Amino acid sequence: MYGALSTLTRPILPQLRSRTILATSLHRAFVAFPSARMRVPYAPSEPQTEEARPVYERIAERRKPRPLIPLDLALLHNPAVADGWNSFIGAIRTKTSVPEGLRELAISRVAVLNKAVHEWDIHAALAVKAGISRDAMQLVFDLPVTKKGLVESNDTLGFAEDEYAVLSYTDQMTIGVEVEDAVAKKLKGFLSDKQIVELTTTIAAYNCVSRVLVALDVGENNGNDMKKVKDL
Known about the structure:
A two-stranded antiparallel sheet has the order 1-2. Strand 1 and strand 2 (149-150) form a beta hairpin. With 232 residues, it is mostly helical. Residues 1-35 have low confidence and may be disordered. It has helices at residues 13-31, 53-63, 70-75, 79-94, 100-114, 117-129, 134-142, 161-175, 181-187, 193-216, and strands spanning 145-146, 149-150. One of its GO terms (molecular function) is peroxiredoxin activity.
């Protein structure tokens, strides 16, 4: 059901060429997004110091073949923070064993709860690509919440049992932080202990992502409509 700078071997010319390519791609990413509404200006699209250059290169490596995104250029006000973020989110995205569909389902629900437009547009599409049905994604988008998370029900509201367990856990982590024992226990029927830790850190990580996106209006998406499920 579920699907998600080259090494420099000669001292001068290749190095200059690599730096030119990096600078060009970073500049293209920077100028593609207006900064009028972002609450701080984006960081420079090129490294300002030799110390910062490897950070830019590591982030560019993870993003390729895409250029840097607005979130990168917001975080690069502090290259050390951007570097740690890149390492952490990179591990969350590529070095966990939670089924891709469940992972993207959880991230999509975080986006809805936190009104993070860009996060929803990207990750809801990835959830569908990974095998989550459009009907399920419409529920993710539409379902209201209570102080305990998903609307209480005697059934799974049309979700598969593993999807419902993940969404209940996501809601409680995101809304009230505290997770009831019964909600946490449901995950054990579908995920290993390792995967439960991975899911928990994924939900926490994308709560962090959405809070930065929304608080600073990174990408100038606040107030825009989220993509409709039929258009994912």
